[in-house]
Amino acid sequence: MSTPSPIRLHKELSRIWDTAPGLGRLSAVNHTVLGKRFIITAFVFFTIGGLLAMLIRAQLATSKNAFVGPDIYNQIFTMHGTIMMFLFAIPMFEGFAIYLLPKMLGARDMAFPRMAAYCYWCYLFGGSILIAALLLGVAPDGGWFMYTPLNSKPYSPSINADIWLLGITFVEISALSAAIEIIVSILKLRAPGMTLNRMPIMAWYLLITAFMMLFGFPPLILASALLELERAFGLPFFDPTRGGDALLWQHLFWLFGHPEVYIIFLPAAGAISMMVPTFARHELIGYRTVILAIIAVAFLSFGLWVHHMFTVGIPHLALTFFSAASGLVAIPTAVQIFAWIATIANGRPKLDVPMLYLFGFFVIFIIGGLTGVMVAMVPFNLQAHDTHFVVAHLHYVLVGGFVFPMLAAAYYWLPHFTGKSSEHVLSRPAFWLIFVGFNLTFFLMHLTGLLGMPRRVSTYPLEAKWDWLNLLSSFGSFIMTIGFALFVIDVFLQMRFGTRFRRDPWTAKTLEWATPTPATSYAFASLPEISDRADRLEPAALGPKLARGEGYLGFTRNNWMETLGLDMMTARPTEVIVLPRPSFLPFWTGLATGAFVLCLLFKLYWLSLVPFAITIGLWFVWTLTTGGRTDMAPLDIGHGQSAPPHWQVERPPSWWAMLFAISGDAVMVTSLIFGSLFLIVVAPQWPPQAFATVSPWLLAAIVWGAIVAALAGRFALKQLLSGTAPLAGLSVAGVGHLVTLTAATIAISNMGTLTAHSQAAMLFALLAMAALHAFIGLLLIAYGFLRHFSGKLSALRSMDLRIGKLWHDATAVMVLACVVAALVLQFDLSSARLR
Amino acid sequence: MTRSSPLLTLAAGFTIWAIGFAVIYAVQGAGCAYGWDRIALGPISLLRWILGMLATGTAVCIYLTKRKLSNILAANARNEADHFLLSIATCAALIAIPTTLFTFAGILITTVCG
Questions:
Q1: How far apart are CA A807 and CA A737, in angstroms?
Q2: A45 located within any domain
Q3: E strand or H helix at A468, and its extent?
Q4: From the candidates A198, A199, A245, A317, which should be mutated to test the interface with B, based on the most B CB atoms within 10 A?
Q5: Which of A141, A234, A333, A391 could bridge across to A755 with cysteines, CB 3.0–4.6 Å?
Q6: What is the mean pLDDT of each run of 10 residues along chain A (835 residues)?
Q7: Smallest CA–CA separation between B43 and chain A, in Å?
């Protein structure tokens, strides 16, 4: 196809890719728009969390302070932690990832734009529920890690804890979807020639972080669901008087909670790894070693969750495992720090404002890392546990490891957002106020902690002699706040009065600076071919060539929003990915999902079925515009090459998304099985006096149905590939899932009371998990029929059935695992214990 | 190897470590609950034997994986990207071995269920 003139190409692409103004903004699916929305919304939540922190410091400034009472104080510190962890840090990183990734990788958008929009609405609505609760005085008040039994019904009878459990789960599902989108986008949507070894280092950081989210969040989602079931229906998963165990919550929470620290730190480290080479004017030293270090950090971070539980009475040997892993994780973290220092040392560094903030990062994060090694050691931990020393440590790690790098990143990429270069008049005083204020606030908490001041107390006696330290600490926090206010003013002034520039104001070497600035909705008028590492480019020279349409896809076709999909390993173009146009569907689906959550919150369970059905119905509507009704010849992609549309290839992005979703699902099922075994082995009131049982015939039917569904799903695909309508295979697969669903429902209804003992409750949870898998399987069968009758299936267009096959196969395995665990739960193993 | 398998090998060494970690922690908990630490097998308890063997087995599995990866790297790395990923995978497996030994060293030292 011929390439139009650069201006005409720009106009045509803008017409296709731009979001409509006015109310049309609600239909935005573009990564540039959504990335900015995530970042701005996260910063608003950060401001709210910061204001709550000011209230905390005002309360603790002096002894016996009556500024706020203990009830309000409990809500304030709980919401401060919750907002900063769930509504600021993760979404801020998601925002940066969504905005930057396609531009760094040489793509026009993320893999699933509508999913990104849906994630945003879920995040906004979930976060708004929490903020509304705060304004109404019913915010969560049991600490941001929601320990049981404090947050169980007898001790938190009102709606506060439910708001956390449902609101945060809502936000977490959004984060999980974003993780899958980030993984698929990195693996499939890069510029041709950008093999994995040529990716910018930040893509590696984001890829591994997204995998950590995929495996870290399901235990928390499961734990939240179990605790909500306990609170709403009395199923005693965490009640030690009825066979549950409060420690099960702690295990599931920290299995998420500790990797979460690295999930927050690693994207920031990725940003550092982009900025340091630019300002050192030297490419990153140890690119390969840094990737190795990230992998080591990612794995080790999953092996140290118990260091949050050192004081709960776990045997010494187990403590050594977690203490050792906690100490070890410092090594790969230090490797990254040394790589940055070596890069600076080998280059010709210039101390611009982003580097100033990185200097703050180095100082603060290293102090936090060193105190981290201290609390990793069991004897010290036993002394410092739940004191202000830990508060100081975690703020040094999180503010040092995330906030300072993000401030640096904001200054670094602000010209990209605005198209205006920076005049750093206020940036330096803002830095020094934040840096000095932060250290004054939190360094002194090491001392109050060592003097024995517990965390989360609303006041303390005069006799403790902590007044002067706390007063100074509070004074420091106000200095820090002034610094942040100055930062906001500075950013606003730069957006308003900064001077315009063409491209690449920092003379960086990465691809995002080859886009027009401020970025256009389509990012690149044509896609580049990468023949070297993507941090060795010349964006100022490359950008105009791409704007002239000299790269791939330098034209428009059928009003399609197109980008290229690649073979993961060879980075050769394999498909033209046709992305969905702007749509209000993600907004309405997010609203419907929000309504579903609100129904659960107000215990309107029957009514909740309405928004639930609407949500599922809207998801089906999403699919109406995807795919094609006829087999197409390969499409021209420029440079004399061609590739088929993505719905005609064996493994398009949606196939990979399903595969990764199943991986996260497997973690959820494994966590549930772990919970069952944990209660059998550890719970104090086990075994129950009377075991709840399920007929072996029903269990057999549950497994049989799932296996039939898997085999029939494969048969349906085989039918389609051989040119036959897959109706028989789909029908039998549907029957298989229906058998599983029905048998599990009958088994649950025959179990009698579920509230007497956790054995019955766990049995219910396992069967419900099996039923849920079968239900989703049925939806996919319905989807298969829908696609068939709308003419979107053929031997060449088999993507939808391939995705279904993945789920049916996974369901068979998961259901079998659940049923085996259910069988184990029904046996009294206590006789095997030595008396 | 399949097209995407070099990517999977990146996680091989530490995945074995993670599985070993989960199994050893679970067996330790179950062994203490069921009293395996009170069954003497020679100079040490049955539970310590089991844990020691599991830790050793984990290290051996990682070593064998590392050796396999080294062989693939030497013989079959087809292109720059494969070579890059396999070299990182081999190093990751290599460092997973001392990680394993250090993480589980407590089996030799401390009380098993105290």
A1: 11
A2: yes
A3: helix A467-497
A4: A317
A5: A234
A6: 86 96 95 97 98 97 93 96 96 96 97 96 96 96 95 95 95 92 97 96 97 96 97 96 96 94 96 97 97 97 93 93 96 97 96 95 97 95 96 97 97 94 87 98 98 96 96 98 96 90 90 94 97 94 95 95 95 96 97 97 97 97 93 96 96 96 97 96 91 96 98 98 96 98 97 94 98 98 97 96 98 98 91 72
A7: 18
CB of A687 less than 8 A from some CB of B: no
Q: Do B102 and A324 touch (CB under 8 A)?
A: yes
Residue A223 maps to which CATH number? 1.20.210.10
Cβ neighbours of residue A740 closer than 8 Å, sequence gap 6 or more: A701, A702, A703, A705, A706, A709, A770, A771, A773, A774, A777, A811, A815
Q: pLDDT tens-digit profile of A551-588? A: 999 999 999 999 999 999 999 999 999 999 999 999 99
Q: Which residues in chain A are contacts of B114 at CB distance < 8 A?
A: 315-316
> What is the pLDDT, as a whole number, of residue B1?
46
The domain total for chain A is 2
Contact call for residues A797 and A784 (beta carbons, < 8 A): no
Which DSSP symbol is given to A644?
-
Of A500, A529, A548, the residue at which a domain comes to its end is: A500
For A641, the 3-state DSSP assignment is strand
Residues in A closer than 8 angstroms to B11, CB to CB, are: 295, 299
Whether residue A324 and residue B103 make contact (CB cut-off 8 A), yes or no, is: yes
In a domain, A125, yes or no: yes
**Chain B environment of A187 (Cβ under 8 Å):** 7
Give the type of residue at A70. Answer: P
What are A84-122's pLDDT values in tens digits? Answer: 999 999 999 999 999 999 999 999 999 999 999 999 999
- Please say if the pLDDT value at position B4 is more than 70: no
Question: In sequence order, which ranges of A84-137 are alpha helices (DSSP H)?
Answer: 90-105, 113-135
Distance CA A169, CA A227 (A): 12
Strand stretches in chain B, DSSP E: 40-41, 44-45
Q: Please indicate whether, in this complex, the C-beta atoms of A328 and B99 are within 8 angstroms of each other.
A: yes
Terminal-to-terminal C-alpha distance of chain B: 47
Whether the CB of A833 is below 8 Å from some CB of chain B: the reply is yes
Instruction: Say if A694 falls within a structural domain.
Output: yes
Angle, CA of A619, A169 and B21, to the nearest 5°: 110
- Whether A770 is covered by a domain: the verdict is yes
Q: How far is B12 from chain A (nearest CA, A)?
A: 11
Question: Is B25 touching A (CB cutoff 8 A)?
Answer: yes
Chain B residue numbers touching A682 (CB-CB < 8 A): 29, 33
pTM summary value: 0.96
Pick from A569, A677, A835 the residue to mutate for testing the B interface (most B CBs within 10 Å).
Answer: A569
Whether B66 contacts chain A with CB within 8 A:
no
CA-CA distance, A828 to A687, in Å (whole number)? 6
Boundary residue ending a domain (A500, A523, A553)? A500
Closest partner residue to A196 (CB to CB) among B7, B106, B112 is B7
Question: Looking at CA atoms only, how far is residue A834 from chain B in angstroms?
Answer: 5
Q: Per the structure block, which two tokens stand in for A729?
A: 């295979």
At A791, which CATH number? 1.20.120.80
pLDDT (tens digit, 9 = 90+) per residue, A779-801?
999 999 999 999 999 999 999 99
pLDDT at B2 over 50: no
Supply the range of the domain harboring residue A123.
6-238+247-500
Q: Which of residues 80-109 of B touch A (CB under 8 A)?
A: 80-82, 84-85, 87-88, 91-92, 95, 99, 102-107, 109
CA distances from A465 to A389, A468, A471 (A): 16, 8, 11
Size of interface A-B (CB pairs under 8 A): 118
